Amino acid sequence: MASSITGHQTPSVPLSSLSAALPRDPVPEDCDHEAVARTAVKWLSNLDTTCLAEGAQWRDLLAFTGNMRTFSNPHAIELAWKELTAIHHPQEFSLIAGSCDVSACWIEARFEFTLPQSKHPKRACSGIVRVVPVGNDWKIWILATLLEQVEGWGNVDVMKRLTPEQSKAARARVGIDSGKTCFDCAVIGGGPSGLSTAARLKALGVSDCVILDRNSEIGGSWLARYKSFTLHTSKTHSEMPFGNVFLPDDPYFLTSERVAAGYKRLVEWYGINIWVSTVVHNASWVEETQTWTLEVEYVGVQGNVAPRLQIRARHLVFALGGGGQVPKIPLYANRDLYKGEVLHSVNYKSANHWKGKRGVIIGTGNSAHDLSMDMVDAGAASVTLVQRNRTEMLPLSLYKSAFDPFYHEQTDIALMDKMRACIPLNVARVATLEAVRKEVDKMPEYYDALERAGFRTERYIDLVAMVFERLGGHFFDVGAAAKIVDGTIKVEHATVSSFTETGIRFSDGRTLDADVVVFATGFECNMRHAAARIVGEEVGQRLEDFMGVDREGEPLGLCKPMAGQKNVWYIGAGIELSRGYSRFLALQIKADLQGASFDVYI
Question: How confident is the model at residue 1 (pLDDT cuts 50, 70, 90)?
């Protein structure tokens, strides 16, 4: 992930370079699975290398390290475990009844433990172990620990709904017309990541939090998209903290209107403070007071502008949607010669006014295929996708097999998010790739037909890298592939060199006429660049990069403290991550507001 490194950014490494191997020795059929798991949990009271498999890994999420860390190999795990348990004195490691689950080659179980009062109140923690057979013995392959709750802080995973009157009063107390200018936390961005963060903080008793959103209404970032837009994750997979913001009759793939309606319910049910139509011009760190000063401006209906206002906040959270929704637009020569219409997908709303016209879409990710379908449905004379590189494919059947077993109507979403977060990313990647390969190999004709139509596919999609490194760039097929195969949507696998008066020219000299050219070329992925435009170049150089992974396989910048700048955070990279990781972000902010930040283990 390209970035200018200034010394405050952790170097990223390719996730594919972090080796991991899945166990292959089968779990004996005649063993007592729960007894094995119970024994493994007992080992945690005095963990050493003899308890650990050769490729063992331990991921900690705030329980011991005050951060998110992954330790690999038995010696590194033993060293860190002994040092950290000597500091925190964990107690009462116990197997959670009914949590034992058996796969072909490992036994998985959940456990719980407590950390006694120190500078923090008593803490409830949990974890998972995956235990594998090694010869005649059992060893821990995967260990994970996470902070659940802190005594007296409230429950970060549960919040009671307010009555309409209570919600209205709570929001009025800190709303834009309240005159309030001092906050514990300011969140820039009112999409799923910003709303999740504010909701979690509210559950922890942090009421002085404000979301600053430039859109004119809650859910506006979704409503501003093209009219045919739907989410590419299921309704349950797309839920918000505390759950059930979407209705039983809402469709599997939510439209932008249904998404926005769910977000409005979240705000109303829990009294979340969001200032809409509010632009953040800049933010500056005041070292003397250890606070942020933000200059904001309310732009009301029909562009009515109020005087700029300064507000202060102890913590600043950037929830800008990956790169802040800054579009990437390739620069092709002779743009001024072209007589047709050119736009980026961010500005695309509908193809109805292009009936009978020739459309060209540059790019082959999700937006490109959504827009190509929209153009076809609107009666365009022709629709052509310009494919620059092979495209990773995610057929609907593959998505359902990968995610529906985890996220469905009976899922305890809070628990599932935590369990999925426990698995080290390199292990999750290898396991997911293996599962993808099995599914893809069942449907060769699906991919062969696309290749015959000129669409070059990368069959074995790397779902983990897609989320944590690329932040998209794949093709989730909900119908466009069939139209490519039957020729309704045409494909040119080529490099564009320039515009012509009537269309575009490829590097091999061929030309393609078009009445409209749409760049479906994605967005800037590194939130640091968008954040730097707000905090200024000097502070921006001290910020961490956003996404990609470090040498431990931990996501860069995601809900983690930054070494170069205090009290500033990122959250984003999809609804599941925003929902799940927001709990860890809220706990860290709450700790600081209580006067006792978590000690970060280096």
Answer: very low
* Confidence check: pLDDT of 322 > 90: no
State which amino acid sits at residue 536: G
Q: Does domain 164-322+527-594 have CATH number 3.30.70.20?
A: no
Per-residue pLDDT tens digits for 375-387: 999 999 999 999 9
Residues of the chain by 3-state class (helix, strand, coil), percent to 5: 30, 25, 45
Q: pTM for the full model?
A: 0.92
How many Å apart are CA 276 and CA 211, to the nearest integer? 8
326-523 topology per CATH: FAD/NAD(P)-binding domain (3.50.50)
**61-78 b/e (C-beta count within 10 Å ≥ 16 → b):** bbbbbbbbbbbbebebbb
Q: In b/e form, how buried is each residue of 408-425, taking b as 16+ CB within 10 angstroms?
A: eeebebbebbbbebbbbb
Cα(174)–Cα(172) distance, integer angstroms: 5
Helix (H) or strand (E) holding 513: strand 511-513
Question: What pLDDT is stored for residue 302 in this prediction?
Answer: 59
How do strand 391-395 and strand 475-477 relate by DSSP bridges? parallel
Classify burial at 170, counting beta carbons within 10 Å of its beta carbon; exposed 0-12, middle 13-18, buried 19 or more.
middle
Sequence-distant (6+) residues with CB within 8 A of 580 are 417, 418, 420, 421
Is 557 in contact with 570 (CB distance < 8 Å)?
yes
Helices (H), 295-404: 366-377, 396-403
Model confidence at 5, in pLDDT bands (50, 70, 90)?
Answer: very low
**Mean pLDDT along residues 460-484:** 85
What gap in Å lies between CA 65 and CA 127, rounded to an integer? 14
Is the CA virtual torsion 420, 422, 424, 430 positive or negative? negative
Tens of pLDDT along 158-174? 999 999 999 999 898 88
Is the Cα torsion angle 232, 236, 240, 246 positive or negative in sign?
positive
Strand partners, 110: 128
In the chain, the N- to C-terminal Cα span, in Å, equals 24
- Using one digit for the tens of pLDDT, what is the confidence trace for 199-252? 999 999 998 999 999 999 999 888 877 777 888 889 999 999 999 999 999 999
Asked whether the domain spanning 326-523 has the same topology as the one spanning 164-322+527-594, the reply is yes
312 touches 485 (CB < 8 A)? no
Domain extent listing, the chain: 31-150, 164-322+527-594, 326-523
**31-150 maps to which CATH number?**
3.10.450.50
> Coil, helix or strand for 366?
helix
Query: For residue 549, how far is the Cα from the chain centroid?
Result: 13
Contact yes or no for 518/360 (Cβ under 8 A)? yes
Q: What's the pLDDT tens digit per position in 122-151? A: 999 999 999 999 999 999 999 999 999 999
- What lies within 8 Å, CB to CB, of 93 at 6+ separation is 41, 42, 44, 45, 111, 112, 113
- Residue 185 and residue 201 in contact, taking contact as beta carbons nearer than 8 Å: yes
Neighbours of 151 (CB within 10 A): 11
When pLDDT is cut at 50, 70 and 90, the band that residue 510 belongs to is: very high
Cβ 398 vs Cβ 505: under 8 Å? no
